[in-house]
Amino acid sequence: TWPLTASTYIVDTNSEPGRLSLAYNAVWPNETLRPVNGVVVRFVAGYGSVATAVPNMAKQAVKLMVGHMFEHRENTEIKVLEKIPDGVFDLLAFERIWPV
User: Where are the alpha helices (DSSP H) in 42-95?
Assistant: First the structure.
């Protein structure tokens, strides 16, 4: 492995999805990479430590799902999760990053 210091790359958090780029005047390590998994990026995902960072549509989808589960709380089986309300998917579609 070859860990890179934070000065070696630039984090672009304004793009969706976010991305990493090589910093100005930085160079990639001069070694032969494996043909499979030659580069591995480890990161922590999420919206941050404050609720205001979470998109409103995602919060609304969680509330809708919790309401559905509360309404069907008498069911002791997993079946309550088999049918997720369509509105949950509709709300989360705004946050999904579609492949091009």
Answer: 56-71, 79-82, 86-93
